[in-house]
Amino acid sequence: MDKKFDLDAAIRKVPDFPKPGILFYDITSIFTNPPAYKYVIDEMLDRYKNAKVDGVIAIESRGFLLGSCFAVANGVPLVLARKKGKLPRRTVEMSYNLEYGSATLEIHEEDIELGRRWLIIDDLIATGGTLAAVAAMIEGKGGEIAGIFSIIGLPFLGFKEKVGKYNPITLIDYDGE
Ligand code: AMP
User: Fold this and answer.
1) Of 43, 93, 99, 139, which is the active-site residue?
2) Mean pLDDT to the nearest integer, 52-63
3) Residue ranges per domain, the chain?
4) Does 43 score more than 80 pLDDT?
5) CA distance 146 to 158
6) 92 C-alpha to center of ligand 1: Å?
7) Which fold has domain 51-173?
8) Residue 99 is among the residues annotated as catalytic for this protein
9) DSSP 61-107
10) Hey, which of 59, 100, 130, 154 would you mutate to test ligand 1's pocket, going by the most ligand atoms within 8 Å of its Cβ?
11) Which tens digits make up the pLDDT trace of 103-147?
12) Which atom of ligand 1 is nearest to the CA of 123?
């Protein structure tokens, strides 16, 4: 009766995107699939139902689509970690390396004071560099990390070494070929 949802089947895999050798996990196929999107949100809310979280940091852009649901459901502030140059007020920023390339994220500095224990949400954890950079921004301003959530984890890229101390939770993990 309570059959486990086949999340793997809902995730589109695109070889050689955005460059040769990368297998891209395209989660837009979750957002176009209402039962899949609902499953992911329900699971996320369930995993943290007893956690002490008083703010959410969502990472641009797919993290926004998870973080907003968490914030509304739990009545906590949602803070956007955006790509450099998008936020108008005073920011803290952090640069980091990706599985492919590098990037810089920013957060409005004053928003960090809205919460004490932050849950950081993104769609996928690969090397963990993105989430580690956001965690460092929060901790650098005196905030605490309540946890890290992502739909997908790629443990073979080493995220556990980088962000394991923040108890990352993923709904599905994939091995490298
Ligand atoms: P990382 O900082 O290495 O953990 O990379 C995580 C970020 O890069 C997330 O925002 C993902 O959306 C994106 N990303 C990295 N690798 C992949 C992949 N193989 N498929 C889809 N997205 C990826």
Assistant:
1) 99
2) 98
3) 51-173
4) yes
5) 21
6) 22
7) Rossmann fold (3.40.50)
8) yes
9) TTTHHHHHHHHHHHT--EEEEEETT---S-EEEEEEE-SSSEEEEEE
10) 130
11) 999 999 999 999 899 999 999 999 999 999 999 999 999 999 999
12) 12
